[in-house]
Amino acid sequence: MLAIIPQDIKGHRARLDEIVKNLHELTIKIGHEELAQTVSDLRNRLHEPFMFVIVGEVKSGKSSFINALLSTGREITKVAPQPMTDTIQQLLYGEKEEEVVINEYLKKILLPVDILREIAIVDTPGTNTIVAHHQEITERFIPASDLIVFVFEAKNPYRQSAWDFFEFIHADWRKKVIFVLQQKDLMPEEDLAVNLQGVSEQARKKGINDPMVFAVSAKQEQEGLEQVSGFLPLREYIRKNITGGKAPVLKLQNNVSTAQNICERIEKGLDLRQQQWESDTAFRQDVRDTLHEQELKSHKQVDILVENLIAGYDRITTLKERELAEGLSFFSLLKRSFTSIFSKKLSVREWLAELAADMERKLHDELRVKLDANVDDLADSIQHMARIIDLKLRSSETILRHDHDIFSDIAERRTGVLRELQDAFSTFVNRAESFRDDNLFSENRSLSPNIATGSGLAAIGVIVMAVTNGMVFDITGGILTAIGLLFAGVTTSVKRRRILDGFRTEINDGRQQIESEITQRLKTYITQLKKRIDANFRRFDEHLEKEAAQLTALRAAHKAVVEQLEEMAGEL
Prior knowledge:
Layout: H1 7-30, H2 33-44, E1 50-56, H3 62-70, E2 88-93, E3 98-103, E4 106-111, E5 119-123, H4 134-141, E6 147-153, H5 160-173, E7 177-182, H6 189-205, E8 213-215, H7 218-222, H8 226-229, H9 231-241, H10 247-327, H11 330-342, H12 348-394, H13 408-430, H14 458-488, H15 496-535, H16 538-571
Parallel strand pairs: 1-5, 1-6, 2-4, 6-7, 7-8
Antiparallel strand pairs: 2-5, 3-4
């Protein structure tokens, strides 16, 4: 009869089944098919006996070892000069012998063998086999195993591929491992002792503090030489540590440990994913802060430009106001009116017209000098806004790598979003249309289609110069027209104060227009450009928002499973 499983073990097993189910749902939410399959396999094998998984390279003697361990007197797993185990074979207890093919890579063999009442044995293909899928499927069995029996050929237990596979077992899954040197009968005792010591030292270097290493000969065991075959100490180890009623509890503990190991791997992945999200969020905030800082700097450049324009405007208009005031004195007007009758000296009206024309020439010359001196600084400040964001995009930090064992797809998705952003932004900064804004111009002016049709950032200087030039000379042109009309009706009978007051009014109006309109339009342009630059990050923002929601949900589900496993581990 099969061993009776205590009721409390059944209850623990049922609870663990539910916890592993929750863990499986978590892996599905993560979207990692391989990990989901691993957890599914773990859950499916919860109700199977304590599982020995026999691993090793081709021709290390695994099949002969299993036949000797089962001690049935016949060959259960086939032994041949060429590799024969082309599938995983799981040996389980059954009242009658039966072979059940699960798929082309896995079959179950039921045997009425006493040792299989408490343990199951899994015979795997060689870890260095060239047959497709073998190692992949072997690795799928490792997480659900309870004890790994690593079989080496006694003559050469140092092959790199075997120890590489050991590192996968021990480092990734922290499974309990015992080492078996098979075919010891083919070696002198002194050479065997050297290899036993060598395997122990190698295992210690790989992180096993007290390695269990056995030397056996399946050939001697099957020939009835039990005292020298080396199987007696191995069977004693199994009896003391696994069989005799201990296997069910050990299996539960192993399964809890495996589930916790998976949770730890998920947590490390989530931590990296969280770090990447936090880094990307900080990067995104840095972009916003940088744009804001550059906007303020460019606004300051606008203020400097306007201050210099106003200073030049004030200098010319003050000179002309003084000239006007002196020319409008009673004696100056009387003299000019009288002498103009008898000479070629300008009349009052002609003199005022000339004053207005000279003011126009000097005002234009002065303002053009101020524009030439300051527009480049403003344009460079605006260009820097785009340049610095471009540089930040190229140097964004990557924490979650494409080769991450759980979240490689998230890393690839992030890279795709970032690459799309970089490409879109590169296109943006290289297109002159990105920096044009027809709302900058007054109703009767627009940017010529031949202006600023070159590449991107270089267009800013042309656009700003064209806009500022146009606005300044539109405004000053309007002032001069108004002053011209004011002067046109002047006669000697007009009072001096009225002329001066009218002149000052027009000059002050023009001054306010230059100050307010140019400031407002250029600052609006800068703010709108900042928004256009920021709009390139829409997809990236969506990615960050989605990541935040997913991380919150995954961490909550992960925490629940971890707490359930900790509680169960304490009870066991």
